[in-house]
């Protein structure tokens, strides 16, 4: 009967058969579920599993995940997982022959520092795509991440969100035999679905990481075939729970903020700079409530992000806008659900809300969000209102995202709609549809399309829909072993403009292809695995840009070969050889780093990149990278290093330094349709220095002082961000935040000279969460 239905729906029996096999294959070969033990007596969270409730819970059987899959485990590891009406409990007995090898590098919350780790990943909806990741080090320091897109980074997708936080508890204890841990996670913090019979299904992964010997023990037995297989929801063990009757608490978090901000201002007659102080006194609140066990509502009023760390400065050697990641906590809940991207371009980019084009804060008056899952439908809705500023009208931002599971647990069809409306009458609307289908054997097909509508459009969607739309078709296979590949085509219309999104360049078509192969070395080898990859990326103008006719519409082309070696104990090493061709259209001349002119022309470049990543087993983390090659009509030499040193459990010091040296000839011929023109450069050589220094001192597990200082001789600015946090308990935080930016070069930009201090602020904030 199912075949008959498919034949009626599909135009061809050849298509019907693989769909039939795909659908029913997932039923025939579905993973066997494990029923977890429900406990009825209390568990005291102290890191010692001596309560009677634990005695009735069976041990799980972990295997070695790395460095050798299913190899002999050098230490004894035991796990138990149980639950009651409101919580999931997980216990780890983490035995160690020599307690001196137990590694704790940091006492800083949410700052993973290559410590020994005990962790659980929970796919609460058992959708094989999203999960919450909770882990703890031997000193009881907690970390929590959100996982989306099945922990798959391919195609430029988001996969791990380390800025996400929720409510949960954990404790540890130590003895001469090793260390021991207990974790308790409320169902209200992860979201679950309870069917009509009162049954709940989830996916779980439990693992232990031994930093000193670079070894990981895991349950279930997941092969290390993916870059992040130890946190991959689709590989989790399916478990069954009965009688879950979770509470749905209301979390009410008011905050109070005071401080002063200082900004330099040029006088009306432009004769001198002065400082204007702005005293801040703010009150606001956030409210979180689980409408059901699988739907969460968030309400925010006068939203504040004073404690958010400053953005990293980036070196921009291209003529396109830079992309900065979202760090603000309000936008972290189920952030992966709102991912609707075309590679680096995306329909929804949350930094468009509450920040202007220069990254300056814009007050969010308030709004709300609903996220969760209803049956097999993922739901996400956001609506926020911002205040009017001297340069921007008050605006309303809306997003609706839906994803319906189809065919199998890793396939979906979905849609997105965004609106941006201001009080001056300007409206921007974007609508998109997408699908991703799991074809089996880690092969996925993706199709995605969107169009924008704007009251300022010069053409209508009915007349020239291709100008206002974008679409993407892709097929990929992403694994660490065997053949992996990807083929993608993307077209972005000339007038496609998602004002709540991010687009680097419109009016182009992009072709991407990747082919690679990976394999594991022998058990005796010092190498864990090898891999190599060929990649091609081409970007072409959709229309005749009155360019260099002989380039056939080419905007840029990039080809590369990369070889990677991952060692078992001494880190990893990569080498990449690349060749690039780029066409600068007539009229699009630009200055690299605002200094060296790159005129319209066609350029071919080649580069060699060497990179080495330190082992996680070392006290020094990070890596080094070097690039040598040509760059447009000049040369480029670049060296970067990003070390992190754990001086003690309380003190971590690190940062990064990037030196880029550019050297160009004094003149270059500009090839245009009217003939060659010689361009003489006033600056032919420049060395960029971009440095960042980070230090964190943990007085204890509750009090932390963080320092972030960065300097760029390109921007001729240095900035400092100091944050003191005292975490009284979950949801109760006291913050002191100091920011200051100074001009490092007193360039005479006419008169008067720039002041030394560009701007600065000191803010004090306290938030207190009440649970009802």
Give structural notes:
Strand 22 (395-405) and strand 23 (412-422) form a beta hairpin. This protein has a 24-stranded antiparallel beta barrel. Strands 1, 3, 6, 7, 8, 9, 12, 13 and 14 form a nine-stranded mixed beta sheet that branches. A five-stranded mixed beta sheet has the order 2-4-5-11-10. The longest helix has 16 residues, at 13-28. It is globular and about 85 Å long. The relative contact order is 0.10. The model is unreliable at 1-30 and 546-550 (pLDDT under 50). 4% of the residues lie in helices and 53% in strands. The protein starts with a helix and ends with a strand. By secondary structure, the chain is mainly beta.
How would you briefly describe this protein structure?
The chain is mainly beta and 772 residues long. The chain is built from 4 helices and 47 strands.
Give the number of helices: 4
What is the number of beta strands?
Answer: 47
Structural class by sheet pairing and helices:
mainly beta
β-strand amount: over 45%
Give average pLDDT, whole number. Answer: 84
Main beta-sheet strand count, sense and barrel state: 24 strands, antiparallel, barrel
* Gyration radius, rounded: 27 Å
Overall morphology: globular
């Amino acid at each position: 009967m199912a075949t008959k239905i498919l034949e009626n729906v599909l135009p061809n029996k050849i298509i019907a058969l693989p769909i039939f096999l795909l659908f029913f294959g997932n039923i025939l070969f579905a993973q066997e579920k494990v029923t977890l033990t429900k406990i009825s007596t209390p568990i005291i969270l102290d890191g010692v599993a001596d309560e009677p409730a634990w005695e009735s819970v069976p041990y799980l059987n972990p295997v070695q995940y790395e460095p050798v899959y299913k190899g002999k485990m050098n230490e004894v590891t035991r796990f138990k997982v149980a639950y009651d009406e409101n919580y999931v409990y997980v216990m780890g007995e983490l035995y160690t022959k020599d307690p001196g090898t137990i590694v704790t590098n940091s006492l800083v919350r949410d700052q993973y520092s290559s410590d020994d780790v005990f962790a659980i990943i929970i796919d609460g909806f058992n959708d094989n795509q999203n999960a919450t990741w909770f882990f703890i080090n031997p000193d009881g320091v907690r970390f929590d991440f959100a996982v989306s897109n099945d922990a798959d980074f391919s195609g430029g997708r988001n996969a791990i969100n380390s800025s996400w936080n929720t409510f949960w508890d954990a404790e540890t204890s130590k003895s001469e035999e090793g260390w021991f841990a207990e974790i308790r996670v409320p169902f209200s913090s992860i979201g679950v679905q309870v069917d009509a019979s009162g049954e709940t299904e989830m996916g779980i992964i439990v693992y232990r990481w031994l930093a000193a010997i670079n070894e990981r023990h895991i349950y279930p037995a997941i092969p290390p075939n993916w870059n992040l297989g130890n946190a991959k929801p689709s590989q989790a063990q399916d478990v069954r729970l009965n009688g879950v009757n979770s509470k749905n608490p209301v979390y009410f978090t008011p905050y109070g903020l005071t401080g002063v901000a200082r900004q330099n201002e040029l006088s009306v007659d432009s004769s001198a700079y002065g400082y204007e102080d702005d005293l801040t006194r703010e009150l606001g609140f956030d409210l979180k409530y689980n409408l059901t066990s699988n739907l969460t509502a968030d309400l925010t009023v006068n939203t504040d992000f004073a404690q958010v760390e400053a953005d990293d400065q980036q070196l921009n050697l291209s003529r396109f806008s830079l992309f900065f990641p979202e760090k603000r906590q309000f936008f972290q809940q189920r952030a992966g659900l709102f991912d609707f991207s075309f590679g680096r371009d995306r329909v929804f980019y949350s930094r468009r809300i509450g920040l202007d084009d220069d990254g300056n804060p814009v007050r969010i008056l308030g709004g709300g969000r609903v996220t969760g899952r209803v049956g097999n439908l993922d739901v996400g809705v956001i609506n926020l209102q911002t205040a009017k500023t001297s340069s921007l009208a008050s605006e309303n931002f809306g997003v609706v995202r839906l994803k319906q599971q189809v065919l199998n647990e890793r396939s979906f069809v979905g849609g997105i709609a965004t609106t941006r409306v201001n009080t001056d009458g300007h409206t921007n609307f974007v609508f998109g549809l997408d699908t991703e289908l799991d074809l089996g054997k880690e092969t996925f097909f993706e199709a995605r399309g969107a169009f924008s509508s704007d009251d300022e459009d010069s053409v209508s969607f009915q007349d020239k829909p291709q100008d206002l739309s974008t679409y993407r078709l892709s097929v990929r296979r992403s694994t660490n072993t065997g053949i992996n590949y990807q083929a993608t085509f993307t077209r972005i219309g000339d007038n496609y403009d998602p004002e709540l999104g991010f687009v680097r360049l419109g009016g182009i078509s992009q072709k991407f292809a990747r082919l690679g192969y990976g394999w594991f070395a022998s058990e005796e080898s010092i190498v864990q695995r090898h891999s190599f990859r060929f990649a091609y990326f081409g970007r072409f103008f959709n229309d005749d840009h009155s360019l260099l006719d002989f380039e056939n519409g080419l905007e840029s082309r990039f080809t590369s070969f990369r070889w990677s070696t991952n060692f078992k104990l001494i880190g990893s090493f990569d080498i990449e050889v690349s060749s690039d061709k780029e066409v600068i259209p007539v009229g699009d001349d630009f200055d690299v780093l605002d200094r060296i002119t790159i005129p319209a022309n066609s350029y071919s470049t080649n580069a060699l990149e060497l990179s080495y990543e330190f082992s996680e087993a070392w006290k020094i983390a990070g890596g080094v990278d070097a690039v040598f090659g040509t760059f447009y009509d000049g040369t480029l030499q670049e060296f970067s290093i990003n070390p992190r040193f754990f001086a003690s459990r309380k003190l971590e010091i690190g940062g990064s330094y990037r030196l880029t040296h550019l050297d160009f000839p004094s003149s270059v011929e500009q090839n245009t349709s009217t003939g060659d023109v010689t361009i003489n450069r006033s600056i032919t050589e420049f060395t960029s220095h971009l440095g960042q220094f980070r230090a964190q001192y943990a007085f204890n597990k509750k009090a932390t002082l963080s320092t972030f200082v960065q300097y760029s001789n390109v921007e001729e600015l240095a900035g400092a961000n100091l944050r003191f946090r005292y975490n009284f308990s979950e949801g109760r935080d006291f913050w002191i935040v100091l920011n200051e930016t100074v001009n490092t070069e007193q360039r005479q930009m006419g008169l008067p000279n720039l002041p030394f201090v560009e701007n600065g602020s000191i803010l004090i904030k306290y938030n207190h969460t009440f649970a009802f």
